[in-house]
Amino acid sequence: xxxxxxxxxxxxxxxxxxRLSCTASGFAxxxxxxxxxxxxxxxKREVVAIISNTGESTGYLDSVKGxxxxxxxxxxxxxxxxxxxxxxxxxxxxxxxxxxxxxxYWGQGTQVTVSS
Length: 116
Known about the structure:
The protein is an all-beta fold. It has strands at 3-7, 11-12, 18-25, 34-39, 46-51, 58-60, 68-73, 78-83, 92-100, 103-106, 110-114. Strands 2, 4, 5, 6, 9, 10 and 11 form a 7-stranded mixed sheet that branches. It has a 4-stranded antiparallel sheet with strand order 1-3-8-7, with no helix packed on it. A hairpin with a 6-residue loop joins strand 5 (46-51) and strand 6. The radius of gyration is 13 Å and the shape is globular.
């Protein structure tokens, strides 16, 4: 079965950095695009970054452009999100996602809290 397991979330001060990872299993990872979403309390879930199956194409939420970088390792079945210059507005549960045959799959999420 499809499994997505996120890790790397933490409490960090404003201006700090974190690297999130998502390890995938149960499907042909290199055939599918991968996405990072986030959801803050009381707010809608929003897509933060996307990456194509080969890693050649990426896209970002406007508010994170220049600060976040998505990457993937198809040999290790992982997708990463490097987050720099973090802001309190980045505080959220970060979730890994992929869509296979019109079905969305989600991890359990990893919490990122940006606070002094």
